[in-house]
């Protein structure tokens, strides 16, 4: 994970000099926080790198079960395996294992290769996300939807990427997107309908300071 963060920061250093384009101020969010993926693209690695650069401790699982989330910080002690990745970074001195998650960050972007590695089809991923989102809403876990993949992780209506957006974005309590991800105004329209704050940035690295404001 540290290597991924370093690669991300090196590539994004010039982007860091660009002004972040805010559409709204970010709301406050509470710790502990879980990061995960909707569609199993590499965009979740970008989100995790942002969290590390911001100095925000988090837990991560690409395909967490509801039982793991119910177990809270530490994700029930599950270990990574083939097609299943778990990382536990939460500061357990502040938030003991088992502390319920207050926030979840979902990186949106479909990858057939990533889903295949996790043994998922697009239909199975969509059904899995519906169950998770229902659980988050029922248990008042703050949902942050993030789309930083740009045009590469967009597509026509009904495509894999758009189905992942449909599964998460309309239910998010807050949305973070890059300008390239929102060229057609899709996320703007969703936010206008749901009244969720929409924060738009030029580059993914612009999320570092925003996440600090949200969590620290």
Which tags fit this structure?
single chain; globular; 216 residues; alpha/beta; Rossmann fold; seven-stranded mixed sheet; 9 helices; 38% helix
Structure write-up:
Helix 7 links the parallel strand 5 and strand 6 (174-178). The chain has a single domain (2-215), classed as Rossmann fold, CATH 3.40.50. The longest helix has 17 residues, at 122-138. The two termini are 21 Å apart. Helix 1 (2-11) crosses helix 3 (43-54), helix 3 crosses helix 9 (207-215) and helix 6 packs parallel to helix 7. Strands 3-2-1-4-5-6-7 form a 7-stranded mixed beta sheet, sandwiched between helices. It is built from 9 helices and 7 strands; from the N terminus they run H-H-E-H-E-H-E-E-H-H-E-H-E-H-E-H. With 216 residues, the protein is an alpha/beta fold.
Class per helix and strand makeup? alpha/beta
Order of strands, main sheet, comes to 3-2-1-4-5-6-7
Mean pLDDT: 91
CATH top level label: Alpha Beta
Q: Helix coverage percent of residues?
A: 25-40%
Distance between the termini: 21 Å
Would you report the number of β strands?
7
Low-confidence parts lasting 5 or more residues at pLDDT below 50?
5-22
Give, in order, the helices and strands: HHEHEHEEHHEHEHEH
Radius of gyration, in angstroms, nearest whole number:
16 Å
CATH architecture: 3-Layer(aba) Sandwich
Q: What share of the residues does DSSP label as strand, in percent?
A: 15-25%
The biggest beta sheet reads: 7 strands, mixed
Q: Please give the domain count.
A: 1
The 3D shape can be described as globular
How many alpha or pi helices?
A: 9
Can you tell me the CATH topology?
A: Rossmann fold
């Amino acid at each position: 994970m540290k290597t991924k963060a370093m690669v991300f920061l090196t590539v994004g250093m010039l982007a860091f000099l660009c002004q972040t384009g805010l559409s709204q101020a970010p709301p406050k969010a509470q710790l502990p926080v879980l990061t995960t993926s909707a569609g199993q693209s590499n965009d979740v690695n970008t989100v995790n790198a942002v969290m590390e650069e911001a100095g925000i401790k988090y837990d991560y699982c690409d395909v967490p079960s509801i039982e793991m989330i119910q177990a809270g910080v530490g994700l029930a002690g599950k270990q990574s395996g083939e097609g299943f990745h778990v990382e536990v970074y939460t500061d357990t001195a502040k938030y003991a294992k088992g502390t319920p998650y207050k926030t979840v960050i979902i990186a949106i972007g479909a990858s057939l290769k990533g889903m295949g590695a996790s043994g998922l089809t697009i239909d199975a991923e969509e059904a899995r996300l519906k169950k998770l989102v229902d659980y988050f809403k029922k248990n008042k876990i703050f949902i942050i939807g993030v789309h930083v993949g740009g045009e590469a992780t967009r597509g026509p209506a009904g495509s894999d990427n758009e189905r992942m957006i449909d599964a998460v974005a309309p239910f998010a309590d807050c949305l973070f997107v890059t300008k390239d991800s929102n060229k057609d105004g899709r996320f703007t329209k969703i936010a206008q309908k749901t009244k969720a704050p929409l924060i738009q940035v030029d580059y993914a690295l612009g999320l570092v300071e925003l996440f600090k404001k949200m969590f620290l």
